[in-house]
Amino acid sequence: MKKGLPAALVLALALLSGCAARATGEDAPPLCWPEQPVTLYVSSDLHWQPRAQAAGNDLLPEMVWLEEIIDALMDAAARDKPAALVLCGDLTNGGTLEEHEALSARLGAAEAAGVNIFVTMGNHDMDRSVPPGTLKRLYGAFGWAEALSADGGSMSYLAPVTDGLWLLSLDCNVYGEKESKLAGTVSAETLAWVEDCLERAAEAGVMVVPFSHHNLMVHTVDGDGRNYNIDGGDALEDLLLSYGVPLYLSGHRHNSFLVEAERDGRKLIEAVTDMPAAYPHRYTAITLQPDGTADYAVPSLDVDGWAARTGRSEPELLRFAEQSGARARARLEDTAARVTERMDAAQADRAEMERFYLDFYACYQARTLWREGDRLRADPGLALWRAHAGENIYARWMPWILEHQSDDAPVQTLGPFR
Predict the structure, then answer these.
(1) Where exactly are the structural domains of the chain?
(2) pTM of whole model > 0.70?
(3) Using omega within 30 degrees of 0 as the cis cutoff, is the peptide bond preceding 50 cis?
(4) What's residue 25's pLDDT?
(5) What is the pLDDT of residues 175-210, one digit of tens each?
(6) How far apart are CA 237 and CA 253, in angstroms?
(7) What's the alpha-carbon Rg for the chain, to the nearest Å?
(8) DSSP 46
């Protein structure tokens, strides 16, 4: 949908879109799906920062090419023309005004090239206390300007993408802190506003896809699994399920995976998306099909191809995938050696554990656990890690992932939801 249409006209178009209005509340079936395929590209955790600052990042040296990685993401969206590019927060790394001004200008250039961008804020975006009013001014063209509704107690908004699809941007950041927290929050007032939005969508026969920076569901085993999540998320999850909302988008984890909740025959899938600067430099592509399914994929950015097309000559860019993959492998080898050398195990056992760690993580990064899970679960290296589960998080995390996410393929069909 072309941005800038009056809210009243948007609502009128939705009512005429061929999607019949549906019952609301406890007895609601899934909200209407678009009559034509609609594709969303999703990314998160851009962590924009000046190149000079990124040059000192030893943990993730690819950050020095962050401008080029983000340009490759925008180029993919401009070339493929999804209905929307959804950015799930942590747009900047330090949350400074300088970073926000630089990134919003870059996003503005992408919009001018035809990319339809919607954003929400993450904890890193709030770390330097840039006021919400300033953030809305800088990023207003990326959601707030065409909002059908805005929450008075947060930076959340409801905005149209097409006649049959609205995005619900949820600002779950903790305000009033010197630095925002890893965990998010959602107030009772914001929940009430969300329900009003869902009622409005149900009356118009429109599908709603919510997105936030913080995670809605438990995705991993670190701590109690909720330090990256939304406090009060259970109530939000129940509300979304009660209205038949099928998809939820988030980031924050710097990796991609799917988690599902189901109640009373209603299914809600949360798709967490990657940090584009982290190997293997993925984004998420979701195409909503008229039959009530969704095509899901997590392709890697073609930084090499973008560099060649735009006339760049740096070898680091023209062989970006190869060199980034080699650096990622070296970091994994270093981590495996450092972790196992501190464990109370024989040298031969530590060698086996290192081998298994590298094998497991290669499958995890490539999203091939769905194919390799049975082999990895039978590997004697896993048994050695289990025997040392009390010594570090990896010994708990790898078995948990194999149990809960081993069917998470990089290309699959989600649903049917109706």
Answers:
(1) 7-305, 319-404
(2) yes
(3) no
(4) 45
(5) 765 455 788 999 999 999 999 999 999 999 999 999
(6) 19
(7) 22
(8) -
Taken in order 123, 125, 131, 134, the sign of the CA dihedral is: negative
Q: What is the CATH number of domain 7-305?
A: 3.60.21.10
> Contact, 402 vs 364, CB < 8 A?
no
Alpha helices (runs of H) in 81-119, residue ranges in sequence order:
97-112
- pLDDT at position 18 over 50: no
Averaged pLDDT, 11-27: 44
- Residue pair 240/263 in contact by the 8 Å Cβ criterion: no
E strand intervals along 109-228: 117-120, 149-150, 157-162, 165-170, 184-185, 207-212
> Residue 243 and residue 246: Cα distance in Å, rounded?
9
**Cα–Cα distance, 203 to 224 (Å, whole number):** 39
Pairing of strands 284-288, 294-297: antiparallel
Copy the structure tokens of residue 166.
Answer: 């609205």
What residues contact residue 409 under an 8 Å CB cut-off, 6+ apart?
Answer: 367, 370, 371
Q: pLDDT tens for residues 357-397? A: 999 999 998 899 999 999 999 999 999 999 987 778 888 88
Determine the Cα–Cα distance for residues 321 and 303; give it in Å rounded to an integer: 7
